[in-house]
Amino acid sequence: TTHYLWNNTMSPNAVHTSPPSTEHASKTFFPKSKLLFSHSETLATLISEYPPNFSHHAKKYLFSTLLNSLSKYASTVEHCVHIRKYSSETLDTQLAWKGGQSLCPVEILQGPFDYQPDKGHKTKLWYLNFADANLFFAYAGSLFAQDEMQVCEMPVLASVRELLKHLTLENQLASPTTMHARHYATPYLIKNVPRHLHIDTAPSKSCPQGIYGNAFAATPLNELHKRCKVIHPPQNTNIIAMASLGYGKSYYTADQYSHLFLTALAAFSGARQETDDHTECIIHTGLWGCGAFGMSKSVSVLVQWMAASLAGVDKLKLHCVTKENNVQVRQILQEFSKKAHPIQQSYMSVSDFFAELDKKKAYKWGMSNGT
Fold first, then answer.
1. Sheet-wide strand order for 123-131
2. Is 82's pLDDT higher than 50?
3. I want to staple 50 with a disulfide (CB 3.0 to 4.6 A). Which of 54, 85, 157, 162 is the partner?
4. Which residue has the higher pLDDT, 102 or 151?
5. What is the distance between the alpha carbons of residues 216 and 193, in angstroms, rounded to a whole number?
6. Closest to 288 (Cα-Cα) out of 333, 248, 319
7. C-alpha to C-alpha distance for 42 and 59, rounded to whole angstroms
8. pLDDT of 22 higher than 50
9. Rounded distance, CA 206 to CA 15, Å?
């Protein structure tokens, strides 16, 4: 088994504005997740042959507001969506950081994703979908957490699910699942996804609770109309759909740490592989799994930061919707940065580090927020 040394050289509060670190990445070996399935389809085919099938009246309304714009765009622009499914099966935790390899730079951002387009050919931006093990399974109904909101803003993601269901009839590898029988992760990466709609979910005078999560189902259509803006031309972006573990009890175990880490490593390694050489790979994420699934914020940040570093990601951008979460994430990064030094000194593998966390009962599961 190959071993790498963790060399901690960055401050968790730093915002790096230096040139892309692709020269460093090209000289360093990074573990690669396995590509299981690949398919590309035109936007016109996705919309016409595999249309979204929304069932909730508010989501039908949202789709109707942008259908003309979406159809016109699909018919006039040559646009291809690329679907990739990666696996964590060939990865393991018997590795550590290589000499000279630093922790991935982290930038903390206040507010939700803005899905800014790629900044030219030197940067490729990826945005997380906080997925279920069953990819986009709740897109049609009343649920409106991060996953479902993303599909409403990018309805081609619903078409991707419908396409995958069809392809699965002849190829089981195409199944719309982000986990294989809970044995290993199979995250989806979807490139060149057009975002046609912006939805403002924040609290307001007319809607003090906002419309995120369970509040969406009871939102009047006139309120929903005020909060929506059709984006023309659409923003093209890249999506990473990966599912965390959920609804755990008591303290995290070494196996749980390992599963979460390998899930993120498979997804982030896929993103690095899907990003051209000499192009900066930047991943926008947040408190993955910390809503309905009840993940610990500390564990969510920890495993993503470790995975991004080992996958060769050039920068991790952590979005915090609330100021309270912003403060907590900064504290988490500072705490974890201190843990890096003894790992560097002892050549500790990732698996040994997780075993030590398990032994110390370092982190406890949180509670589901019910969204």
1. 34-42, 80-87, 188-199, 228-243, 123-131, 280-285, 315-320, 106-110
2. yes
3. 162
4. 151
5. 24
6. 319
7. 24
8. no
9. 37
**pLDDT, mean of residues 76-98:** 86
At 370, is the secondary structure helix, strand, or coil?
Answer: coil
Confidence (pTM): 0.90
- The length of the chain in residues reads 371
Round to whole Å and give the CA distance between 314 and 141.
37
Cβ pair 365, 249 in contact under 8 A? yes
* Nearest of 265, 259, 337 to residue 308 by alpha carbon: 265
What average pLDDT does this structure show over 213-225?
94
Q: What was the pLDDT predicted at 24?
A: 40
Which tokens sit at 368? 């589901």
| Longest CA–CA separation in the chain, Å | 60
Q: Which helix (H) or strand (E) holds 161?
A: helix 156-167
State the CB neighbour count (10 A cutoff) for residue 13: 12
Residue type, position 305, single letter: W
| Dist CA 83 CA 164 (whole Å) | 10
- Cα–Cα distance, 301 to 127 (Å, whole number): 15
CA distance between the termini of the chain: 41
* Among 213, 231, 215, CA closest to 223: 215
CB atoms within 10 A of CB 166: 12
If you ran DSSP here, which 8-state letter would residue 206 be given? S
- CA-based torsion, 344, 288, 80, 50: positive or negative: positive
Which pLDDT score, from 0 to 100, does residue 347 have? 67
Tokens of 248: 């755990």
Q: How confident is the model at residue 102 (pLDDT cuts 50, 70, 90)?
A: confident
pLDDT at 342: 61
147: left (phi over 0), alpha (psi -120 to 50) or beta: alpha
Q: Which residues contact 114 (CB under 8 A, 6 or more apart)?
A: none
Q: Locate 145 and state its tokens.
A: 């957490």
For β-strands 34-42 and 80-87, DSSP reports them as antiparallel
Q: So what's the pLDDT on residue 58?
A: 95
- Find the helix or strand (DSSP H, E) in which 266 lies: helix 254-273
